[in-house]
Amino acid sequence: MIDFWLAAGLLLLVALSFLLIPVLRSRRAQREEDRTALNVALYQERVAELQTQQEEGVLDAAQMDAGRAEAARELLADTEGAEAPRVSRLGKPLPLLAAILVPVLGLGLYLHFGASDKVELTREFSQAPQSMEEMTQRLERAVAAQPDSAEGMYFLGRTYMAQDRPADAAKMFERTVNLAGRQPELLGQWAQAQYFADGKKWSDKVQALTDEALKADPKEVTSLGLLGIAAFESERYQDAIDYWNRLLAQLPPQDPSREALQGGITRATEKLVASGGKVAQAPTAKAALLKVSVDLASDLKSKVQPGDSVFIFARAISGPPAPLAVKRMTVADLPVTVELGDADAMMPQLKLSNFPEVQLVARISRAGKPTAGEWIGRSQPLASSTTAPQTLTIDSPDK
User: Fold this and answer.
1) Which spans does this entry mark as compositional bias, Polar residues (predicted)?
2) How far is 174 from 183, CA to CA, in rounded Å?
């Protein structure tokens, strides 16, 4: 911050120089004017002296002219090189007054419209905070300085939740939603903060927020976790198990919260059994299995070789670009009929049955690369639950 004010002071001195230099120059011009006036007075005195000597008969007319000429040369020599006097239309008081008002007005305008608070915050955020309280204070100042920053409000809300200040967090998440829109994850965070701010009492407002979040995204993790907590607190143990199982399915295997979540499911199960209930088993998803017959267009048979690789796969219409199920054949195997199912998944989390709509693709690759080749055939989008046999023809250049 000191560097900023030093730079501002230097720029101010540069600005003042444009105002004060003309004033200083005017003083120099005044001195030049006074010296010229003195030389003229001496010239006139010398000429008067010569006239007196001529009248007394000491000098004749020729000597008088020679003396006058000599005095004129001396006057010209003394005044030669002097600058022409500059006439200031502003006068001296106005530049001096401006020199005083410029820094005062500049400082006042900067303090009112400037960004000194943001400069200071930038300097502070360049250093690691020493405590959670210091981080909270920084975020609060950042939100005050940038009231239109949804990101700053979101992080401040998360910080309030970490400090067990759910009421403040709920207000901050509400402001975030008003700025960034009603995104499912923001609605879930708002609902969670509101629930704890109300003393763990379920309300119509919290219900509406979670309903809206899960309608937009059925896998929204904060809402699923919150609904499980609320169900457990109200002794609806089966509902808690269902919500937490849905949440568990969304978490990656290495997520550290899986252990705590699994512990919650176990406790809910024990309480349900102790109260005389029976845990309902979640229906297992039916494994998807697509049957597809692949052939090569007749006009391409002369352009391929029997050993060229043929990759037959299904990929999600809305989802990751990676294939969901893959089989590898050769041109010599065509025509061929294959089945693509969950057992052919390249990754466990990318199963065919996890995506409602897919596209079938067959690609010929002389280099043996499944991502690029020479010829390709594609199907129209179809449901992953389709049981009718499909036909696929490789007939187009792979671009």
Assistant:
1) 381-399
2) 11
> What DSSP designation does 311 have?
E
Give dist(CA 89, CA 141) in Å, integer: 49
CA distance 122 to 1: 10
Query: Can you give the residue ranges of every domain in the chain?
Result: 2-113, 148-274, 289-397
pTM for this structure? Answer: 0.48
For 43-77, the three-class secondary structure string (H helix, E strand, C coil) is HHHHHHHHHHHHHCCCCCHHHHHHHHHHHHHHHHH
Q: Which one is the CATH code of 148-274: 3.30.9.10, 1.25.40.10, 2.40.240.20, 1.20.1740.10?
A: 1.25.40.10
Order of all β-strands in the sheet with 390-394: 336-341, 289-296, 390-394
Nearest to 54 by CA among 67, 43, 35: 67
Q: Which two tokens stand for residue 150?
A: 């949804």
Tokens of 166: 């759910």
CA distance 192 to 161: 9
Question: Do 221 and 248 meet the contact criterion of CB atoms below 8 Å apart?
Answer: no
Alpha-carbon span 65 to 186, nearest angstrom: 104
DSSP β-bridge partners for residue 316: 358
Report residue 262 as tokens.
């699994």
First CA to last CA distance, the chain: 57
DSSP-derived secondary structure letter, 318: S
Dihedral class, residue 81 (left if φ above 0, else alpha if ψ from -120 to 50, else beta): left
List C-alpha distances in Å: 384 to 152, 219, 342. 42, 20, 11
Give the tens place of pLDDT for each residue, 215-274: 988 889 999 999 999 999 999 999 999 999 888 887 776 778 888 898 999 999 999 988
Contact partners, residue 118, CB within 8 Å, separation at least 6: 145, 146
